[in-house]
Amino acid sequence: MELHPGEEIIYNGHPSWRSTWALYGRGVLGAIVLGLLTALGTGVFGDGVDWLAVALVVVVVLCLTILAGFVNRMFTVYTITTQRLRIQRGIIARKVQQTRIERVQNVNTDQGIFERLLNVGDVDFDTAGGTNDADFRFEGVNDPEKVVAAVDKAQREHSMAPGRPRPADGLS
Questions:
Q1: Of 1, 57, 93, 97, which sees the most CB atoms within 10 A?
Q2: What's the DSSP call for residue 14?
């Protein structure tokens, strides 16, 4: 990511490895189901259950699940700077989504019970004007309150940047 003049990175991160547990759980369940279907299929249509085929199906599904979780985690980058929020996704095909920090109006966190226990969650950003940023969210980040604090810091630093009007200090 190329920074603009005077821009500094406040937060740079990936989805937490703990946030991929749901994907891994579905992968294990899928591996078991496909393993059972393979056992049933080889037992019904063959001379008995082909345990090698069952094991191969289970191992392949588990490996693909682990790879998918790793790729999603490592090739998703969330960045907060003094001027903008940025999400970059993808390996070969790349999708970059960004918005200026002054457009951020609300920052909301979303954590279920399981996510609270793992200290991961989603941070959703409501931005001013337009629907282009409707899905602007950092998903599965570690310590979502830290991300909210980083956005607050970025907004304060942006408002105090040289050349920007200063907020009223309450004196007349």
A1: 57
A2: -
